[in-house]
Every structure is written in C-alpha cells, then in structure tokens.
Amino acid sequence: MTTEKVSRWNFTSGTTGKSKMIPQDEYYVEKIFILKEALLHDVYPQLNPMQSELRDHCNSQLRKGGGGISVKAATALDDYITRDMIIYSSPSAAFMIGTEYEASNIYLLFTLRDKNVGSVSVTFVSLFVDVMKFLESN
C-alpha cells in the first residue's frame, strides 16, 4: 500500500492468476522508471544512456471507480508522465494512443528511422510478436 494519497487504482492483467488492484500515488510511475533504468544498466552495462528505446505500448481507457478515483490497467500511462518519455524513440503523444494497431504503426514509423535505438521494451511479448509480424507483412 502507499502512505501517499491514492491517485489511481491499477488492475493487473491476471496472467498469473486472478487480476489484482494496486493503489498508485502520484510518484509511482517515476519510481518505476528509475528502478527500471537502474536495473537495465546493471544487467546490460554496455547500453549507453543516450541511446533511445523502442517501447511498444497501447494505452488503456480510463474508467472512474468509487469516490471518483481513476481505474486503469497497471501498464497504462497518465498524461502527466509524458514529460519523462524522452528516452523513447517515439514522441510522448504516441503513448496515449489506445489501439494496438495504430500505436504500433507510430512506434515503427519513428523507431525504424532512429539509428540510436539501443533496447526494446514491451509490456507483453505477444505485443512484440504482433509488431514483428506486421513488419514482415508490410
């Protein structure tokens, strides 16, 4: 749980069992990004922090829960976090796209032109497989 005011409830996909609800405070996403970057550089020290990253992401739609608190998928991003998305090869507005097909097209459009992509980040491997199949067929 969190000692901060809950700004959103995140629900997990349920791939490891029943879907769970996780409270999120306003600093949750920043903490996750910092932890991810630290782990990435620990495991892959050859990556350069100036390299961009392909992130394939489809943003879920916002719902309102009890008490007016937002409810989204745990992987969904809020508008306020887009200022921190400079490490990715696509513009931050791309991460607000809510359909997988359109989002993947935008990510590929920018990533395939970026010579400095050093890593790939996806929520689920199946999304990346779909992107690769799309790339093969077009």
Structural classification: alpha/beta
Number of strands: 6
Cα distance spanning the termini? 45 Å
Residues in β-strands, percent: 15-25%
Oligomer designation: single chain
> Can you summarize the main beta sheet?
4 strands, mixed
Helix content: 25-40%
Assign an overall shape: globular
Overall pLDDT score: 77
Can you count the helices? 3
Residue ranges: pLDDT <50 for 5 or more in a row? none
List the secondary-structure elements in sequence, H or E: EEHEEEHEH
Q: Can you give a write-up of this model?
A:
With 138 residues, the chain is α/β, with parallel strands linked by helices. The protein is 30% helix and 18% strand. The chain has 3 helices and 6 strands. Strands 2-1-5-4 form a 4-stranded mixed β-sheet, with no helix packed on it. Strands 3-6 form a two-stranded parallel sheet. The protein is globular, with a radius of gyration of 16 Å. The chain starts with 7 loop residues before the first strand and ends with a helix. The mean pLDDT is 77. Pfam families: GH3.
